[in-house]
């Protein structure tokens, strides 16, 4: 059974070559090292979120320590400030390292919306929510609802991270949607002669 070449439409690769298709192919071809670095940066950032609640554990609940420190202004200052400075330093280092690495990855792959959304923005958003949940649970359990300055700063930092990740996800999803719509609107199959 022979196929009539004039009625058989064949779409060439060039017909499918749009910015959207190129982005899909490029996202798949990004070196695995970048994917590992992105995942590691997200895990480092998550570790920073999870370490932060340890910096505002409840020193004020210790009655012996509270009695000995509350008799002078220096003791009151100690009770109302950072409870665990080494943990705070670790949390800050992890946060800065994670965000710096993700900033570098963002700059390196800023034109590939698919990779940015899937490897940077959504994981950061989910990790920030996990960190926020951990902070809130810590405040409700270990601090019995008392919100210290450190807890408030942790909530603000984690909330800003979640908000910015959410905003970037929405913004880049809209850009990606425009590319997808452009791709589907410009797809006009050309007939070619398979015998030529």
Can you give a write-up of this model?
This protein has 196 residues and is mainly alpha-helical. The chain has one domain. It is built from eight helices and no strands. The longest helix has 37 residues, at 149-185.
Q: Into how many domains do the coordinates divide?
A: 1
**Average pLDDT:** 80
Count all strands and give the number. 0
Helix content: over 70%
Low-confidence stretches: 1-10
- Please work out how many helical segments DSSP would assign: 8
How far apart, in Å, are the first and last alpha carbons?
20 Å
Global shape: elongated
Largest sheet: none
**Could you say which structural class the secondary elements and strand pairing correspond to?**
mainly alpha
Would you list the SSEs in sequence order as H and E? HHHHHHHH
Percent of residues in beta strands:
under 5%
- Rg over CA atoms: 26 Å
Keywords: Membrane, Transmembrane, Transmembrane helix
Transmembrane segments: 32-52, 87-106, 113-137, 149-172
Which terms summarize this structure?
membrane; elongated; disordered N terminus; 196 residues; mainly alpha; transmembrane; transmembrane helix
Entry summary:
With 196 residues, the chain is mostly helical.
What is the strand and helix layout of this fold?
Blueprint: H1 13-16, H2 19-29, H3 32-51, H4 63-69, H5 73-79, H6 85-108, H7 113-141, H8 149-185
Helix pairs in contact: 3-6, 3-7, 7-8
């Amino acid at each position: 059974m022979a196929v009539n070449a004039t009625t058989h439409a064949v779409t060439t690769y060039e017909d499918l070559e749009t910015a959207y298709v190129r982005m899909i192919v490029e996202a798949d071809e990004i070196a695995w090292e970048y994917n590992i670095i992105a995942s590691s940066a997200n895990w480092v950032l998550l570790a920073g979120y999870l370490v932060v609640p340890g910096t505002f554990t409840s020193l004020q609940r210790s009655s012996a320590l509270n009695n000995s420190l509350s008799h002078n202004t220096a003791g009151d200052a100690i009770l109302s400030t950072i409870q665990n400075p080494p943990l705070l330093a670790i949390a800050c280092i992890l946060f800065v390292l994670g965000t710096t690495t993700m900033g570098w990855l963002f700059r390196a792959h800023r034109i590939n919306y698919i990779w940015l959304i899937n490897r940077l923005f959504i994981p950061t958003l989910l990790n920030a929510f996990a960190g926020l949940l951990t902070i809130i649970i810590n405040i409700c359990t270990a601090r019995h609802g008392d919100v210290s300055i450190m807890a408030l700063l942790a909530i603000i930092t984690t909330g800003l991270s979640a908000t910015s990740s959410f905003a970037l996800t929405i913004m880049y999803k809209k850009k990606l949607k425009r590319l997808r719509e452009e791709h589907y609107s410009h797809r006009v199959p050309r007939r070619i002669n398979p015998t030529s």
